[in-house]
Design a protein that fits this description.
Layout: E1 13-16, H1 28-40, E2 44-47, H2 61-72, E3 77-80, H3 98-103, E4 107-110, H4 115-125, E5 129-131, H5 149-153, E6 160-164, E7 168-169, E8 190-191, E9 195-196, E10 203-213, H6 214-217, H7 228-235, E11 240-245, H8 251-263, E12 270-276, H9 288-296, E13 303-307, E14 318-320, E15 323-329, E16 332-338
Parallel strand pairs: 1-2, 1-3, 3-4, 4-5, 10-11, 11-12, 12-13
Antiparallel strand pairs: 5-14, 6-16, 7-8, 9-13, 10-15, 15-16
Length: about 350
């Protein structure tokens, strides 16, 4: 019921468009390092003309839509990986031919603002998309038990992929690509782990994964690009495991966004909800955990927070549409994805 792009092999083409933000000159060296990382795996790389565009977006919306479409529908291109997210990928939604994008299943990879495009592609076409690292993160060595996106797109058809909670995460700050474009090791300085906030007890659930960046995908609710209920009815008789992660919203804004998704029915078919770790601010007397508990704690399904699926590295690779099995006990947490 879900269509998975074929695995990448040596000689395949990976395309780099910029459907959201481009890469400013001060980060050009990091872009070169990331592209070289892909080539070192035996892949050819095509970089779009807009990738080095500056400003809030890499170029006008029609030009960004055309570049993305050209790459995603090119039979020689087997993966599309933007450099990173940005702010207004949403203005491409009305310009894209979704049937054409879904016809030749190509791995589309990214997170943050790119999830504004990945999620609708899966919801509307049934083609799996990959929420994971972006291109500029690709040189990093992803720590076990997490997997880099490059392992997912090369996994054989029907593969089973198991990951777990990161042992540690980066508590503050980011690497300065302008000063250290070659950096390939995450600074992981704070003990990790997922937390259940709706109730006590172990978690053992299954469902098909859907989700993305809370600040961007929350605007899709109630539109033709965020019809989670339809996807559940047509593609997920097993139910859904919905994941969301906040880039920077404070605890009050997180509360509002989660409630909005709840009112839009995004969790009606959920067997569990995963909420990513965030550096969004806590407020006096109201934390990010309070936000998730208040908005989702009485859904009657497990709600796990501090999941490694967002803007705080390291990042799980999560396949929208994959059949997932999530477990959580006092001794550890895991997510297994079946590409079936």
């Amino acid at each position: 019921m879900i269509r998975y792009p074929r695995p990448l092999v040596d000689g395949d083409v990976v395309a780099v468009p910029a459907p959201s933000a481009g890469v400013e000159p001060r980060h050009a060296a990091r872009l070169d390092v990331a592209v070289a990382t892909l080539r070192s795996r035996g892949w050819q790389v095509r970089v779009g003309d807009l990738v080095r565009g500056e400003g809030i977006a890499s170029g006008p919306a029609p030009a960004r839509a055309a570049e993305l479409t050209r790459f995603a529908t090119d039979p020689d291109v087997r993966a599309v990986v933007p450099p990173w997210g940005g702010e207004i990928a949403m203005d491409l939604l009305r310009l894209l031919d979704w049937d054409a994008l879904g016809e030749d299943a190509t791995w589309c990879v990214g997170f943050s603002d790119i999830s504004t495009l990945l999620l609708p592609l899966t919801l509307r076409t049934g083609v799996a998309t990959l929420h994971g690292q972006n291109l500029m993160d690709t040189p990093y060595r992803v720590p076990s038990p997490l997997l880099p996106w490059t392992d997912v797109v090369t996994a054989p058809a029907g593969a089973t992929l198991t990951q777990g909670a990161a042992e540690a995460y980066r508590g503050s700050g980011f690497d300065d690509y302008a000063t250290h474009p070659e950096v390939d090791r995450f600074t992981l300085d704070t003990p990790g782990g997922w937390t259940r906030i709706d109730a006590e007890g172990d978690v053992d659930v299954r469902g098909r994964l859907v989700g993305g960046c809370l600040e961007t995908v929350s605007h899709l609710a109630g539109t033709p690009y965020g019809d989670v209920a339809r996807f559940a009815a047509t593609h997920a008789p097993e139910g859904l495991i919905v994941y969301v992660e906040s880039a920077e919203s404070d605890a009050a804004d997180t509360t509002r966004r989660l409630l909005g998704l709840r009112y839009a029915g995004w969790f009606d078919a959920a067997t569990a909800v995963l909420v990513g770790r965030t550096r969004g601010l806590d407020l006096p007397g109201w934390t990010q955990h309070d936000a998730a508990r208040h908005a989702l704690g009485d859904l009657g399904v497990p709600v796990l927070v501090d999941v490694d699926c967002g803007h705080v590295p390291p990042h799980l690779s999560l396949v929208n549409g994959a059949l997932a099995h999530v477990t959580h006990t006092a001794t550890g947490s895991s997510i297994t994805q079946h590409l079936v």
